[in-house]
Specification:
The chain is an alpha/beta fold. The protein contains 15 helices and 14 strands.
């Protein structure tokens, strides 16, 4: 969010200071200014700007001695930008972080523990939300919204292929795929580009097969287990038979721009009711089905994580910044942000009414949600693994070799980072 300012110079500045000097003296001490870095949680830029401007005003009323500025930044390059800002002392007082970012900044001492902010309300948050905000037993983030990923289907494409019920398990996916293929349609839209987070594509399959990304102590890669090979083989078989469209290698978890949105695939993943509402406008409401997270050979599992506000450990305004975290985790603020963003509530005692006819299914999917496996090098490991998955999809490597190669590189990274 860019804010302009007027520059007063020369004699005009002197005159202004003389005229207003007494008024300044009467006002008492200036308000403490705190800055929060926020990202596009609310997709529409104009709606986002209006929402955060309203938050600035509401917080000013709740904490008269504090002046809040919410600076909106793009998702792109947020890790490198934040790392640089925290290192050179120009960082914000508070920042929105994702669970796979949090450990790296927490273990470096760049963000401060904030358990005191949630001391009286911790029991009211979803256990998975608090787990995602916790690093080595300390809470480093205050959850302000909750995501969940579940399945979205095009009923017309399924019906046309003679698939009477949306595939809900791996076996049902494998059985339905040839029927869709005979109609010239892919079954599963999958995103395998480098900037498509593995939390929304490969990792849920890994968890559904009973696997893990990291060893229990977080010091070794674990995705090259038998479960990992099974998950990648399942995916590769679907790709090889045309059940996953060839565009998946460059697709990036967007509904509108990819095969699912263009009605070239009958099934995909969705992160909030707004996806289903968009599909209803595009395909027709009767053709939209929202299901539970996919069930693999071991369990039903999907990714879902909170967005958390963390406090810069170097902030000179710790108390005031904690006031803001407490403000944003109040039920009224959780509700207002959830309404504006379309995401769910991270608090078990706050269920946000949603006019979408699909909201109930997303709420129910929270029961199967995993916040992922946060690690200080989570993002780097994704960048090592993603190209290996594409190499398997395109037939350049076997599932076993691709996962072993990625695990070797990940283990070396983990060893250097410990």
């Amino acid at each position: 969010m860019t804010r302009g300012f007027w520059r007063v110079t020369g004699s005009l500045a002197l005159a202004f200071s003389l005229v207003t000097g007494c008024a300044h003296a009467d006002r008492g001490p200036a308000a403490t200014a705190i800055t929060v870095w926020m990202y596009p949680v609310i997709a529409d830029p104009r709606a986002s700007a209006a929402y955060w401007k309203q938050v600035e005003r509401a917080f000013a009323e709740a904490s008269p001695g504090v002046r809040l500025t919410v600076a909106e930044l793009p998702w792109a390059d947020r890790d490198s930008r934040l790392t640089a800002a925290l290192a050179d002392g120009t960082g914000p007082d508070a920042v929105l972080l994702m669970p796979d970012q949090l450990p790296r900044f927490a273990l470096r001492g760049a963000v401060a523990p904030v358990g005191d902010v949630l001391e009286d309300t911790a029991g009211k948050f979803l256990p998975s939300a608090l787990a995602a905000a916790t690093v080595r037993g300390e809470i480093y983030g205050a959850p302000i919204y909750q995501t969940v990923t579940t399945t979205l289907y095009n009923k017309r494409l399924l019906d046309d292929a003679g698939v009477l019920a949306p595939p809900a398990t791996w076996k049902e996916v494998e059985a339905a795929a040839p029927k869709l293929r005979r109609n010239g349609v892919a079954l599963l839209d999958y995103s395998a580009a480098d900037d498509a987070t593995l939390n929304l594509n490969f990792y849920p399959l890994l968890w559904q097969a009973g696997g893990h990304v990291f060893s229990p102590d977080g010091k070794k890669a674990a995705f090259n287990s038998a479960a990992g090979v099974r998950a990648l083989t399942f995916l590769t078989t679907l790709y090889g038979t045309g059940a996953i469209p060839p565009t998946s290698t460059t697709s990036t978890n967007r509904l509108a721009d990819e095969a699912l949105g263009r009605q070239q695939a009958a099934m995909g993943y969705s992160v909030d009711p707004a996806d289903a509402d968009l599909a209803a406008r595009t395909w027709g409401a009767d053709n939209v089905l929202v299901g539970a997270p996919l069930r693999g050979p071991v369990q039903e599992s999907a990714f879902g994580a909170p967005g958390v506000l963390s406090v810069n450990a170097a902030s000179r305004h710790q108390a005031e910044t904690r006031e803001f975290l407490a403000f944003m985790t109040r039920p009224a603020q959780i509700k207002s942000l959830s309404r504006a963003s379309g995401y769910l509530s991270p608090r078990a005692d706050v269920v946000v009414p949603n006019a979408s006819p699909y909201a109930r299914q997303y709420q129910e999917a929270l029961a199967s949600v995993s916040p992922g496996e946060p690690n200080p090098v989570s993002r780097q490991v994704m960048r090592l693994l993603a190209p290996q998955i594409r190499a398997t999809l395109t037939g350049r490597k076997s599932a076993r070799r691709a996962l072993d190669d990625a695990a070797a590189a990940a283990d070396a990274l983990l060893a250097r980072s410990s």
